[in-house]
Design a protein that fits this description.
Layout: E1 12-14, E2 19-22, E3 37-38, E4 60-62, E5 74-79, E6 85-86, E7 95-99, H1 107-122, E8 127-130, H2 136-139, E9 142-144, H3 170-179, E10 184-189, H4 191-207, E11 212-217, H5 233-252, E12 257-263, H6 270-279, E13 284-286, H7 300-311, E14 313-319, H8 345-360, E15 366-370, H9 373-377, H10 383-401, E16 407-412, E17 415-420, H11 421-425, H12 436-445
Parallel strand pairs: 2-5, 7-8, 7-10, 10-11, 11-16, 12-14, 12-15, 13-14
Antiparallel strand pairs: 1-2, 3-6, 4-5, 5-17, 8-9, 16-17
Length: 462
Amino acid sequence: MDSNGVDEQMKLVQGTAGYVLEDVPHLSDYILDLPTYPNPLQSNPAYSVVRQYFVDEDDTVPQKIVVHKDSPRGTHFRRAGPRQKVYFKPADVRACIVTCGGLCPGLNTVIREIVCGLHYMYGVTEVLGVNCGFSGFYSKNTVTLTPKTVSDIHKRGGTMLGTSRGGHDTSKIVDNIQDREINQVYIIGGDGTQKGASAIYKEIRRRGLKVAVAGIPKTIDNDIPVIDKSFGFDTAVEEAQRAINAAHVEATSVENGIGLVKLMGRYSGFIAMYATLASRDVDCCLIPESPFYLEGKGGLYEFIAKRLRENGHMVIVVAEGAGQDLVAESIEQQDASGNKLLKDVGLWMSLKIKEHFAKQRKMDITLKYIDPTYMIRAIPANASDNVYSTLLAQSAVHGAMAGYTGFISGLVNGRHTYIPFNRITEKQNKVVITDRMWARMLSSTNQPSFMNPPNGTTEATC
């Protein structure tokens, strides 16, 4: 039990041959004798022709699909989708949606599809939008959301509800939920936001309220664990190509040209790695998970000089969280979401490279630095992310209507699932530099691993 009397124990179901279901909470876990109702989808003409549209209660999805013949069956998650029975009458549902944290392609699509899913699949007519993040619950007005008001928002970037970092006051938020008689809460945001969603769920459970809390994980960096990927990631990689292409054009248009591109990736270098693999024009990719050094044999400076002598130009991609240990006067402050404030490694690196080659006086270089961060965050989702965002939103709606709570909807091994909050907030997803994907990237760029700096090498800082 935690300090509020809420059971923190994981809801586990054991089966044969090492089967483990990490289940999500349900309203019936703490509210007894809840009535159930037939799912309105049974009479929905759009779904009447679908065979076995309803998900069996025993359907689960394995976390790992590559196993040996003697391996235990391992961890599973509950399969997402509509159930034959629901725990809310559509006429009684009063739902709300909130977006928190940074922008990401696909936010408006998720908002739209939660509203349309509730309305068209279940007949829910009361959906509220909470303005400007968690603080909007107690400091801002809400906006009524209907299929008409959200009909074309997926064509725009950003979030129609506004967003903010911080502002989480669990007691005030739940007081507001209770005062407004809201009984379904949809929270869209990254790992910090989902930690807040988890706190809201626990307080709601402590008070014994019939309120379902569903999360839709959002992070452009793809750093949420367990799930295959987060919505907006594919769009970010695709848009990053524009910056890399521009850097390549700049670099190839002059003698000894260097194009330096900084991409998002505070703790995880997935965007940088996948954009590099997709581009094939990148000569060096630097990410937070793989340390690098500048000076000495095998260092970045030596590799730049070598590549310029060979090709006459070079493109470098660096994730925003890479090389922070090399940058002097690292900022120990945090933003309102609790993220460490980072120095601009791209600007720092461009200055260091220019200084180095100016001192060497052996090679004149021309370096162009491109930072497309906010351009990438602010664009609408591409076709792939629009489809993915739609399915995540619909899965969350099905889960809440079925009485599940304290969960996020996410893709695991290509199947949509319900995952407990604690599984996606306990750690961050990071690039494994001993994995084959990183090896594929290294073989694409033919860059050194930078794993073994020479003894006595000290990093210059500015």
